[in-house]
Design goal:
The structure is a single chain. The protein has about 400 residues and is α/β, with parallel strands linked by helices. The protein has helices spanning about 15-25, 50-60, 75-85, 90, 105-120, 130-140, 160-170, 190-205, 225, 230-235, 265-285, 290-300, 305-335, 340-345, 355-365, 385-399; strands at about 30, 95-100, 125-130, 145-150, 150, 155-160, 175-180, 210-215, 240-245, 260-265, 350, 370, 375-380. The strands form 4 sheets. The protein has a 7-stranded mixed beta sheet with strand order 2-10-9-8-7-3-4. Helix 3 (about 75-85) packs across helix 12, helix 13 crosses helix 16 and helix 15 packs across helix 16 (about 385-399). The longest helix has about 30 residues, at about 305-335. The structure holds 4'-deoxy-4'-aminopyridoxal-5'-phosphate. The site of 4'-deoxy-4'-aminopyridoxal-5'-phosphate has 13 residues, from helix 5.
Length: about 400
């Protein structure tokens, strides 16, 4: 019809496009290190044992009525403990406004909409580089974006001094998006000491820290340890916001279960903020999905299932850490003259390899290896079976 004459196809998503190309490749040798989803050592997706058990306990035992607008209060309470700490005074004092969200993406978007509505004219500072969807989220929420320095291409580590300069030079009271741990796509996190310095500078500048925590547990294998950045900001008295997701650390990707929280001055303010978050959610999707929230609650409220979960998170993180070592050693054994130290130094799901877009193109066209053109390797897709093949191909295109 003539209604949609002016509609042009949207540009392909840089991450999801990789999987499409991978699926279309008939080669038996093909390797997908593009997608940010965990695979076991056979390259297969995983349903965690704790989730299987929770599924069995839940099966047919619950009604399917709507959750409230803010989602499952039980799930939200258990989720806040993971971020703020089991004995957090902020939880006890009811100072946290929190709602269940459509995973981490939904938490970021709801926060961006909240920021737009209640701090009109404010901007958001986003690291370079970042998860590409951050740009889409704040763009669609109509919050202007600024960037801050993060990654240093030469050291393949953190550009700490440039980051601090940008934090210092931003107008007082600016909003900053921080990756709480396992930065995507670089795998580069500040050290504990650096977090302390960042927090102090944020204090001096009265900046607002919004933590996106999509990989809690995936960096070190221990969710409590991975929340260190957040705990440091809390100790320093910041009123932060947090996006949490169970996509990666519970393998609940498609269930879309997460949480947005905003730490407030007092309980009264938290009630007001929560009611406004719900008001934003109502015309978009009314209320969040039920099943994932039930799975999370079932796991986290049962000490046995929770400790099984913690064990399984560690297994996933350790497999990735092991693959980093093997990939680096394989490249060194092949006689590569380049330094691959960053492969083992970086943490979390991704390795920001330093491969150029042209080298990535060669990996794809000559070796059927698929990844985003920024050189991001999803370590979750690397296995005992393909690591040698991957190392050899990387060596060939970087000679
Ligand atoms: N933030 C970051 C940094 C991510 O990498 C991701 C997942 N790729 C998300 C948020 C959101 O993921 P989800 O919506 O599946 O929780």
């Amino acid at each position: 019809s003539s209604w949609w004459k002016s509609v042009e196809p949207a540009p392909k998503d840089p991450i999801l496009g990789v999987t499409e190309a991978f699926l279309a490749d008939p080669s038996p040798e093909k390797v997908n290190v593009g997608v940010g989803a965990y695979r076991d050592d056979n390259g297969k997706p995983v349903v965690l044992e704790c989730v299987r058990e929770a599924e069995q306990r839940l099966a047919g035992s619950t009604f399917m009525e709507y959750l409230p607008m803010g989602g499952s209060a039980k799930m939200v309470d258990l989720t806040l403990k993971l971020a703020y700490g089991d004995n957090s005074e902020f939880i006890k004092d009811k100072r946290i406004a929190a709602v269940q969200t459509l995973s981490g993406t939904g938490a970021c978007r709801l926060f961006a909409d909240f920021q737009k509505r209640f701090c009109p004219g404010s901007q958001i500072y986003i690291p370079v580089p970042t998860w590409s969807n951050h740009h889409n989220i704040w763009r669609d929420a109509q919050v202007p974006q600024k960037t801050y320095h993060y990654y240093h291409p030469e050291t393949k580590g953190l550009d700490f001094s440039a980051l601090m300069d940008d934090v210092k030079n931003a107008p007082e009271g600016s909003f900053f998006l921080l990756h709480a741990c396992a930065h995507n796509p670089t795998g580069v996190d500040p050290t504990e000491e650096q977090w302390r310095e960042i927090s102090q500078l944020f204090k001096a500048k009265s900046h607002f820290a919004f933590f996106d925590m999509a990989y809690q547990g995936f960096a070190s294998g221990d969710p409590a340890r991975d929340a260190k950045s957040i705990r440091i900001f809390l100790e320093d008295g910041h009123h932060i916001g947090i996006s949490q997701s169970y996509a990666k650390n519970m393998g609940l990707y498609g269930q879309r279960v997460g949480c947005l929280s905003v730490l407030c001055e007092d309980a009264k303010q938290a009630v007001a903020v929560k009611s406004q978050l719900q008001q934003l959610a109502r015309p978009m999707y009314s209320n969040p999905p039920l099943h994932g929230a039930q799975l999370v609650s079932t796991i986290l409220e049962d000490p046995e299932l929770k400790s099984l979960w913690l064990k399984e998170v560690k297994v996933m993180a350790d497999r990735i850490i092991g693959m980093r070592t093997t990939l680096r050693e394989s490249l060194e054994k092949l006689g590569s003259p380049l330094s691959w130290e960053h492969v083992t130094k970086q943490i979390g799901m991704f390795c920001y390899s330093g491969l150029t877009p042209e080298q990535v193109d060669r990996l794809t066209s000559e070796y059927h290896i698929y990844m985003t053109r920024n050189g991001r390797i999803s370590m979750a897709g690397v296995t005992t079976g393909n690591v040698g093949y991957l190392a050899n191909a990387i060596h060939e295109v970087t000679k």
